[in-house]
Specification:
The protein has 110 residues and is mostly helical. The longest helix is centred in the first third of the chain and has 17 residues. The two termini are 20 Å apart.
Length: 110
């Protein structure tokens, strides 16, 4: 599994201007970010925990800027998952599940 934070899209910082996510997805993420703030759980944490639950190879690749982020991820790995928040986010993101947004050259996204 790679990019559980989707190039900052699923973080409190939000994506950079060049991020390929379409406007409707960005809007859904903004709503998700607000919901997570209300529940006291960082969006990045629940995204990370969601990624860890996915079936398949037992690996998760995450880019980092600061080594301290690794300690944060280890804490998130061991923290309890807010199942109610996860369900609410699944409803919010339902239309976007398995709907990739292209990255790079169009011919590489077919």
């Amino acid at each position: 599994n790679a990019a559980p934070l989707d190039m900052r899209l699923l973080t409190e910082l939000g994506p950079l201007d060049w991020h390929p996510a379409p406007a409707p997805l960005r809007d859904a993420v903004a709503k998700a970010r607000a919901l997570c703030r209300e529940r006291g759980v960082p969006l990045a944490q629940i995204a990370f925990q969601f990624a860890l639950r996915q079936p398949g190879p037992a690996a998760l690749l995450v880019g980092t800027v600061h080594p301290a982020e690794i300690d944060q991820w280890l804490a998130w790995r061991d923290a309890p998952v807010d199942e109610g928040l996860l369900r609410d986010l699944a409803s919010l993101f339902g239309p976007f599940v398995h709907a990739p947004h292209g990255v790079g050259l169009p011919e590489n996204n077919r």
